[in-house]
Amino acid sequence: MSKEADKQALIVGASGIVGRALAQRLLASGWRVHGLSRGRNAGVTGCTPIVADLTDAASVAHATADLAATHVFFTAWSRRANEQDNIRVNGAMVRNVLDALGRTKTLQHAALVTGLKHYLGPFEAYASGAVPDTPFREAQGRQPVENFYYEQEDRLFEAAARDGFTWSVHRPHTVIGFAPGNAMNMGQTLAVYATLCKQSGQPFVFPGSAAQWHGLTDMTDARLLARHLEWASTNAAGRNEAFNVANGDVFRWKTLWTLLADYFGVEAAPFDGTVRPLEGRMQNAAHEWREIAAKHDLKEPEIERLASWWHTDADLGRPMEVVTDMTKSRKAGFLDYQSTPDAFFDLFEALKAQRLIPA
Predict the structure, then answer these.
(1) Most exposed: 181, 270, 312, 318, by fewest CB within 10 Å?
(2) Does the model's pTM come out above 0.90?
């Protein structure tokens, strides 16, 4: 039996943008993989589904009673109306899973995926305080605001100290990847938006801020993040550490926007400095998308399963430069790189192949 076959992973959120890529990565490496979710979206072939209500401790304990997981990966969160509820619900999800797995005495490592809101603050107080200087570095620590990421970390640290497993925390920038039904998916959102522009003959208007248009930024391909998660969970240098994780290149939206427009054959509108959020301009998009889906025989006629206007608006509307530092991972031995334009184009090709956008 291979060394990888001895590893049994539980992915919390295996049908999401990160969890899907991670499941594919671990399966290809020979792991046994289970995916814990509410069962709303299709999982990855070869990943054994486990259905439970993550907010219900008894439901999680019952669903995982016969599971001897050696590694658990938290790649999901539940969006609530305010940060207090985010803290209560998302902290409980981490606690419920780790309490259940802790009873098995088989758990070796737990990995938690959070993000750059660790440095920027939560959505409702997004960058409203003193944001650390860029590029963001892990040593900059926590902001003096309520943040459900901090609650998740504390529940992780608490369980690790109690049960004796190691941990890692992974902080990607905006993640690019394939995951219909995911609520935080800029790549798919921009593909849908560009398709709407092409079908209607409207220009491809940048929805964000001048700071994002002109400033440097970076992003994280879900496939690279999956490799980072596997690396940290199986190497001594990744144990009990928090890491930023990004593709390794930087870009300006004013350049990438033209590349995306060229790919879809639409006109990139000149940017005049005005923020034009997508959410406010997409009132008829659901109806228009159903017509496009019918015309091109697409698999998904419901636009809300492909596009997340609010999340893309939040990322592209930031009033400051946002870029991360990968030195800590590099010095620890993770040297992978991914071109961000290629990450977008790979995603678009996958969406075409799956008949989710027109070919």
Answers:
(1) 270
(2) yes
